[in-house]
Automatic annotation (TrEMBL):
GO molecular function list: ATP binding; proline-tRNA ligase activity
InterPro entries membership: Anticodon-bd, Anticodon-bd_dom_sf, Pro-tRNA-ligase_IIa_arc-type, Pro-tRNA_ligase_II_C, Pro-tRNA_synth_II
Cytoplasm in keyword set: no
Keywords: Aminoacyl-tRNA synthetase, ATP-binding, Ligase, Nucleotide-binding, Protein biosynthesis
CDD domains, per the entry: ProRS_anticodon_zinc
The protein's Enzyme Commission number: 6.1.1.15
GO BP terms in the entry: prolyl-tRNA aminoacylation
Gene Ontology CC annotations of this record: aminoacyl-tRNA synthetase multienzyme complex; cytoplasm
Record-given protein name: proline--tRNA ligase
Keyword check for Disulfide bond: no
Length: 195
């Protein structure tokens, strides 16, 4: 999962497995009411937790908001909520997705429903991307030459299979030398026809 979904900024975790699904970060300016912003962050996280999400706030005052963004991106938290003075004045929050960086301003009135939709969308997007990567690595081989070529290229191979242990041992022995022995994994229910 780390290798499939991670990027240069760190982890990108699917919401269903992330220990923290939403992080709420205050973004106070110098002349802003810092306590009111922190209270709004705590209320937002509590509201999300009561709705069944795994949400936390980062109220540490010895780090800048930018540092906190990077820190939580590194940990792979799927959604980040930013609350600043302008957001409080408009009764909204800014939500940032970890998987693609998209930013969206959402009214606090509909926040819980929107967070559910966003987390579902992040989950589906990550699944679709992983499936696309996996499918791009699969090669269909019908001859021994195609099979060994794909194996040398470190690809996953979908080949007709008779499901006999003796044949599997023979294939392992024949591929063990140069390429490293191959093995049968994830036999599909629908087999391609034997050539």
């Amino acid at each position: 999962m780390v290798m499939v979904h991670g990027d240069d900024k760190g982890l990108v975790l699917p919401p269903k497995v992330a220990s923290v699904q939403v992080i709420v970060i205050p973004v106070p300016y110098k002349d802003a009411d810092v306590q009111a912003i922190c209270d709004a962050c705590s209320e937002t996280a509590e509201e999300l937790n009561n709705a069944g999400f795994r949400a936390e706030t980062d109220l540490r005052d010895n780090y800048s908001p930018g540092w906190k963004y990077s820190n939580w991106e590194l940990k792979g938290v799927p959604l980040r909520i930013e609350i600043g003075p302008k957001d409080m004045a408009k009764n909204q929050v800014r939500v940032v997705r970890r998987d693609n960086g998209a930013k969206e301003d959402i009214s606090r009135i509909i926040l819980v429903d929107q967070i559910k939709d966003l987390l579902d969308n992040v989950q589906q997007s990550l699944f679709d991307a992983a499936k696309q990567k996996r499918d791009a690595c699969v090669v269909v081989a019908k001859t021994w030459e195609e099979f060994t070529k794909a194996l040398n290229e470190k690809r996953m191979i979908l080949a007709p299979w008779c499901d006999e242990e003796e044949v599997e041992r023979d294939v392992k022995a024949r591929t063990k030398g140069e390429m490293g022995a191959c093995k049968t994994l994830c036999t599909p229910f629908d087999q391609p026809e034997l050539p």
